[in-house]
Task: inverse folding
């Protein structure tokens, strides 16, 4: 069984990737996907800590499940918003969506 | 008798009807107006019957209604009927009716035809209410109303500048008199506490017991004489360029008068002051010297107006006023003596001007002034009956003369007697009636004027103040005969002088009034003949004033008349005496009289010019003093405002702007926080998260 830190490295790398994607991508769907990456990085953390920390309680596992459900809901709402934006302005470029600015 | 209030009300209503419906009625308005006056005449007849037959014509029947409560007092309005009123009612309604009938022909085709009759109706209403009024206030109101209608009718042809000026002059000059009347009214009200005539008369004897000493009345008279002399000299020397000479003569007369007139206190009483104030009003209305100047100019009005207002009725209102207020005058003889002197002077003075005028209406105007002076003289010397008798006869024959002159003017198209002549054959009926009225005016035996003039001369003869007033009356009679003969000779006798004028006789509608009035010019005298003096029994005051018939007085008056007729005939009908041969000797007299004794110029110099100078001075004060002050205040206010404006601009506005600028700058800076770029928010979020982590971990 590999040491806990390996999991944490993978998780941190995944989170950094998500964060980077979130900051740099202009496509709204890509941004949503980056958010999924970050959420899953957190999930890996939660599961890893649940497995390695003493007591073997299932709290971390359960919390990861909650996060997955939440991510699904978030993805549904986010996609719905993106579709509506597309219908309105014919693109989904986050930089150009500035109607409400000022 | 209780219907007497209808007499003025009917024409008043008709005035309203014609004013509002005149544009629809057009020519029919004349008939309405005449119907109204005829109705008034019938009511007058009924009232007269009631008065003389049922009440036997004595005393006064009064009817009063409360009108205006003033403090604890109630001013009442109403009318009274007595013999004087009844006589005046007949005079006014008959003359007014005849004049209106005449006007149908005379004013035919005038563009303001209905308005003319409306004004005549209003005038008649006002005159009738003046006659039947029994409170001084109602009299004053009517007095002003007749003045107003006089103004309106003189200026009836207001497109003529002379008519407009004459109307203004008449209004202003009579107004000078009206002020006196009003002051007299106030004085009487103050002292008797009532404006009702009967109340005033009851207390006037008391007023006569209160002497009011007017100190230095003589000095005041001297000042007035001096001013007049200055004006007279200025007028003869033609005005402003010879001012030093005029001032010198004025001062000389003033100095002379100062020594000749005793300038101690003259005793008057409250009654005589009130009477003199009222007489001053009568002087204005009846065109007595020195306020006579408006009447000759008033001839600019249509001729029927001259006949009705400026010959028969309104100008006689002054005489009527004196007669009506006779108890006030009689309470203290001072006022009455002044009435006599002014009347006598006016009678002679105006007659001189009648001799030289060439305008037919001007001659008649001066004749009217002269005759009104005669009436005043009659009243003043105590001949109450005589004055009123002459008022009545004069109304008929002078209205006749004016309407006759209207007929002549209508036929020839000119007013200048020098262009007339020979009208006797072309206008026979006008000539006949005119000659009857002329004889009545001269006082030819058996005409109306003969009896009334004789009455006045008789009263004058027995005046306590001297015989000279009688001689003045005879002189007036002579001059009247002289100028009337001249007028008739120049108009009706001789040959037509201007071939361009094609005279024609007037129509029936104009001749009938002439016949009626000519008949009255003879018959009216028979109410007061020496052998049966009916008018003396009714229109009378107290018990005095009746003098036994005197043949010598009658002969003097009649012979003066004959002499005047004869002398004038020798000059103008059978030119035995050539007027040209008299010219060198009498040239300056002629100039003096033809210029109306320079009265207009005197007023110009002593009243109008000083008034204008004062007005200009006041204007200058306005302009340079008051305007200056106003402008200074404005300037200071402006400067102060400017200072306050600076404060406003830099302090108050500055604060406001500071707040605004702060907000603006804050907004401009904070704007960058909200860029709308989602990634930026996310970046800031991450940075903050990292900072917070750092803070919580390494604290």
Result:
């Amino acid at each position: 069984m590999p040491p806990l830190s390996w999991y944490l490295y993978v998780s941190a790398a995944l989170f950094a990737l998500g964060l980077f994607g979130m900051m740099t991508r202009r496509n709204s769907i890509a941004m949503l996907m980056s958010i999924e990456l970050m959420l899953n990085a957190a999930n890996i953390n939660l599961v890893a800590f649940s497995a390695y920390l003493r007591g073997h309680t299932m709290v971390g596992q359960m919390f990861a499940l909650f996060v997955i459900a939440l991510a699904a809901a978030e993805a549904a709402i986010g996609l719905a918003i993106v579709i509506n934006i597309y219908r309105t302005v014919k693109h989904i470029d986050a930089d150009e969506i500035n109607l409400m600015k000022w | 008798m209780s219907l007497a209030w209808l007499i003025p009300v009917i024409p008043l209503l008709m005035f309203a009807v014609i004013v509002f419906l005149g544009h629809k009625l057009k020519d029919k308005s004349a008939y309405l107006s005449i119907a109204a006056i005829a109705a008034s005449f019938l009511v007058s007849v009924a009232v007269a019957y009631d008065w003389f037959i049922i009440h036997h014509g004595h005393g006064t029947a009064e009817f009063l209604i409360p009108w205006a409560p003033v403090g604890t007092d109630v001013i009442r309005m109403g009318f009274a009927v007595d013999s004087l009123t009844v006589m005046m009612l007949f005079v006014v309604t008959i003359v007014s009716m005849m004049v209106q009938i005449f006007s149908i022909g005379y004013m035919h085709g005038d563009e303001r035809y209905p308005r003319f009759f409306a004004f005549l109706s209003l005038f008649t209403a006002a005159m009738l209410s003046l006659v039947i009024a029994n409170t001084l206030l109602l009299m004053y109101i009517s007095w002003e109303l007749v003045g107003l209608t006089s103004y309106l009718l003189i200026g009836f042809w207001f497109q003529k500048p002379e008519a407009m000026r004459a109307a203004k002059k008449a209004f202003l000059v009579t107004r000078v008199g009206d002020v006196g009347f009003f002051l007299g009214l106030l004085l009487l009200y103050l002292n008797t506490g009532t404006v009702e005539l009967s109340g005033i008369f009851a207390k006037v004897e008391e007023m006569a017991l209160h002497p009011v000493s007017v100190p230095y009345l003589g000095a005041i008279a001297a000042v007035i004489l001096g001013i007049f002399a200055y004006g007279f000299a200025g007028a003869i020397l033609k005005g402003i360029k010879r001012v030093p000479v005029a001032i010198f003569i004025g001062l000389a007369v003033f100095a002379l008068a100062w020594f000749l007139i005793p300038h101690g206190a003259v005793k008057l009483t409250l009654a005589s002051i009130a009477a003199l104030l009222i007489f001053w009003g009568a002087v204005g209305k009846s065109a007595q010297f020195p306020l006579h100047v408006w009447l000759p100019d008033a001839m600019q009005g249509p001729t029927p107006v001259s006949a009705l207002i400026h010959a028969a009725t309104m100008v006689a209102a002054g005489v009527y006023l004196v007669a009506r207020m006779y108890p006030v005058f009689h309470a203290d003889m001072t006022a009455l003596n002044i009435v006599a002197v002014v009347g006598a002077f006016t009678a002679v003075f105006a007659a001189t001007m009648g001799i030289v005028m060439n305008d037919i209406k001007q001659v008649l105007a001066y004749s009217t002034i002269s005759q009104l002076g005669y009436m005043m003289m009659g009243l003043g010397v105590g001949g109450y009956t005589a004055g009123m008798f002459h008022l009545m006869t004069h109304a008929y024959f002078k209205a006749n003369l004016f309407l006759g002159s209207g007929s002549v003017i209508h036929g020839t198209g000119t007013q200048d007697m020098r262009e007339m002549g020979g009208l006797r054959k072309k206008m026979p009926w006008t000539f006949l009636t005119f000659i009857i009225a002329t004889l009545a005016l001269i006082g030819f035996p058996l005409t109306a004027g003969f009896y009334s003039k004789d009455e006045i001369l008789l009263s004058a003869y027995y005046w306590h103040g001297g015989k000279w007033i009688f001689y003045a009356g005879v002189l007036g009679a002579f001059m009247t005969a002289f100028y009337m003969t001249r007028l008739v000779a120049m108009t009706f006798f001789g040959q037509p002088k201007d071939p361009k004028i094609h005279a024609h006789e007037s129509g029936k509608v104009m001749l009938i009034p002439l016949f009626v009035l000519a008949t009255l010019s003879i018959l009216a005298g028979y109410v007061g003949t020496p052998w049966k003096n009916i008018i003396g029994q009714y229109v009378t005051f107290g018990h005095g004033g009746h003098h036994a018939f005197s043949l010598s007085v009658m002969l003097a008056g009649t012979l003066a008349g004959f002499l005047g007729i004869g002398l004038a005939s020798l000059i103008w009908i059978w030119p035995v005496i050539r007027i040209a041969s008299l010219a060198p000797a009498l040239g300056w007299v002629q100039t003096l009289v033809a210029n109306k004794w320079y009265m207009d110029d005197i007023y110009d110099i002593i009243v109008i010019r000083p008034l204008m100078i004062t007005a200009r001075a006041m204007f200058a004060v306005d302009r340079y003093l008051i305007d200056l002050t106003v402008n200074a205040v404005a300037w200071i206010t402006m400067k102060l405002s400017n200072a306050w404006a600076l404060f406003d601009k830099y302090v108050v506005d500055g604060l406001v702007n500071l707040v605004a600028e702060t907000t603006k700058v804050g907004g401009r800076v904070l704007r960058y926080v909200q860029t709308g770029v989602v990634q930026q928010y996310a970046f800031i979020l991450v940075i903050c998260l990292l900072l917070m982590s750092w803070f919580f971990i390494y604290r």
Q: What stands out?
A: DSSP finds 27 helices and four strands in chain B. The mean pLDDT of chain B is 84. Residues 441 and 449 of chain B are 5 Å apart (CA to CA).
